[in-house]
Amino acid sequence: MSVSHYRVHGQIAVIAMNHPPVNGLGLALRRALLDGLDRAEADPAVRAIVLIGTDKVFSAGADIHEFNSPLMRAEPTLHTLIDAIERGTKPVIAAIAGACMGGGLELALGCHFRIARADAQIALPEVKLGLLPGAGGTQRLPRAVGVETALNLIVSGATVPAQQLSQTALFDALVADDLASGALAFAEKILAEGIALKRIRDLPCTHPDAEAYFQFARHHVRSSAGAFPAPLKCIDAVAAAVTSPTFDAGLAAEREAFAYLVQTPESKALRHVFFAERAVTKIPDVPEDTPTRPIKTAAVIGAGTMGGGIAMTFANAGIPVSVLEIKAEALERGLATIRKNYESQVKKGKLGADALAARMALIQPTLDYAHIRDADIVIEAVFEDMDVKKAVFEKLDAVMKPGAILATNTSTLDVNRIAAFTTRPEDVVGTHFFSPANVMRLLEIVRGEKTAKDVLATVMKLAKTLKKLPVVAGVCDGFIGNRMIHRYSAEAMRMLLEGALPQQIDQAIERWGMAMGPFRMSDLAGNDVGWLIRKRHYAERPQMPRAVIADRLCERGRFGQKTGKGWYAYRTGDRTAYPDPEVEQLIVDARREAGIAPRRIDDGEIVERLIYALVNEGARILEEGIALRASDIDMVYLNGYGFPLHRGGPMFYADTVGLYTVARRMRAFARQPGADAAFWTPAPLLERLAAEGKTFN
Ligand code: 3H9
């Protein structure tokens, strides 16, 4: 299929981009556009050219896939194409509807005139990919809309409707209805009136107080840019538009910055995340057009922290939700906590008082299963114990209407066993929310052996309505996220025995970028949570090694922040983690009992051991088919475990280090005195990919 069409209407040539899904400006489209342009230039009957996209998209910009290949530099590049348009002798009119983003907007900025539908979506979102607009956007947009407006758009990557910029030189006219006819009429008009070609590059680019303004902007952005170099480079490039002696000098500065940014690991990570977020909802054997069940009402079993957070998630999406508890006091406590959470959002100005009332009205407390029988989905969030789950699911099976989805929020238990407590295992699915459920974006969707395809499709769609990022996981202990974190925590524990302290481990991995180190995280989540799981594991596998230090900590009631003591000590009303000599003594004792002579472990080794512990388990999860793709594992860690965005997720990070190096380091750890050699045996998939010089992603 042709990526663009060329048609002549009287004295006007129309070049229509038609390259689904988003008119990405890959090599094929660039060539087609330049061919069309050359043809129109050469045809004496043609006096003006209209460049148009589809109703949904003018162009979403450069084809992001090309950034990892030489195609991006193949002629005609986007620069060549834009330059050819701008220097052409016949007026070129960009006719814009839908998304006009990145290189798409830069293409339009190179045209002599632009008309748009008022709701066209305008953006230079390159910064979100760790880049800056690299085809003249930082030079032309300030000339079209003013330096400050342009800088705001470029640094934020925000999308605005064309209407918002209608008073600037960006648009010559807005068109109400039929864009194609409007464009032809506009072209006829400029020909009739003999209006000269306008080139944005010829406009001045000034700011009354440039130096102070850019200094202010840099100061403002520096604190929020974190590990990402792009936002500051965006400012430098826009500053170059003002300070460079010529337009071309500014353009050269922009090109240089783009060439630098495109090869940074931060940009590669963000590009990986862009595609990973879109891949995550694709389930190979569940086509996108699989019919779904309507979800108009929901119910949650359990009004504890998780149940309450899940109920809030539904209410926030406008879906009426019942919350069921066995005891009235527990129900009242749960509802009071929900109200308190909403009230604190009101205090912070994040929610209006009306909205609070509306959301509370959507949450119906009940003590009676009969009240929830007509809910379209019910999510169980009770105590993490198989017998308790059994009782709940038998009850749900008895009362819920046919076709209702029966979901469990279990974080580790076997969803197939839970499904088997019912006579309708095809309606059972895991929906593993992360705490606080109303805040965290991640939602692991656990697909049981018998989960029906339409149930899976329904919860994937529901996740979107609830503004969650769903990742499909197969059934295993801990699914994707917790199964991996278990290995990470075990390794952190192992390093305590070998000579490190909780604060050193936490600081090392936090400096590397994790939002929280393993010990601070455990103190926040509650050390008793892991203890409960460990006790179940000890019972199931009596020969398994004990986590002596962590167990003793819990035996002393040091459950974390909620008890004022955990791996650290806490003061009332203060979440700061203070190192505690009692914990250090506990560690020293455990080392002595184990006959381990402590050694100094440097921060680099701490980071490698923690992250590679995740990676090795991730490789097993991938090979077993528990995760559909490596990038799904990255999504879990980025959205549920505070993994640093600029590193792209554990599997992507391993790819950037190189799997050969990762496997080699694992073997080195296995050889260390007293090491758990089995733990550090590279997973077969990792070994294979490393040997073949391949990557996970
Ligand atoms: C750039 O322009 C650099 C230049 O300054 C300089 C160059 C020298 N490329 O999001 P959706 C795919 S950088 C390749 O689900 P929506 C996407 O992967 C670029 N593919 O749809 C998906 O594929 P699949 C700056 C792209 O309707 C499909 O299209 N531009 C691109 O929810 C549908 O996407 C941006 O950053 C692309 N540029 O939203 C804009 N864009 O079906 C990025 C999309 O296989 N794009 N795909 O999963 C967007 O923000 C949204 O896609 C958009 C549509 C709002 C356009």
Describe the structure.
- By secondary structure, this protein is of the alpha/beta class.
- The chain is built from 27 helices and 20 strands.
- It starts with a strand and ends in a 5-residue tail after the last helix.
- Helix 4 crosses helix 8.
- Helix content is 49%, strand content 12%.
- The protein has 3 domains: 4-261, 2-enoyl-CoA Hydratase, Chain A, domain 1 (Alpha-Beta Complex); 298-473, NAD(P)-binding Rossmann-like Domain (Rossmann fold, 3-Layer(aba) Sandwich); 481-692, N-(1-d-carboxylethyl)-l-norvaline Dehydrogenase, domain 2 (Orthogonal Bundle).
- Bound molecules: (S)-3-Hydroxyhexanoyl-CoA.
- (S)-3-Hydroxyhexanoyl-CoA is lined by residues 21-22, 24, 60-65, 78, 99, 101-103, 106, 125-126, 129, 133-135, 137, 275, 278.
Task: Quickly give the CATH architecture of the largest domain.
Answer: Alpha-Beta Complex
Strand percentage lies at 5-15%
Secondary structure class reads alpha/beta
Which small molecules are bound? (S)-3-Hydroxyhexanoyl-CoA
Look at the structure and give the CATH class of the largest domain: Alpha Beta
> The CATH topology of the largest domain, please?
2-enoyl-CoA Hydratase, Chain A, domain 1
Distance between the termini: 29 Å
**Uncertain residue ranges:** none
Oligomer: single chain
Strand order of the largest sheet: 13-12-11-14-15-16-17-18
> What can be said about the biggest beta sheet?
8 strands, mixed
Number of E strands: 20
Q: Work out the helix count.
A: 27
Count of domain modules: 3
Mean pLDDT: 96
Q: Considering the protein shown, what is the CATH homologous superfamily of the largest domain?
A: 2-enoyl-CoA Hydratase, Chain A, domain 1
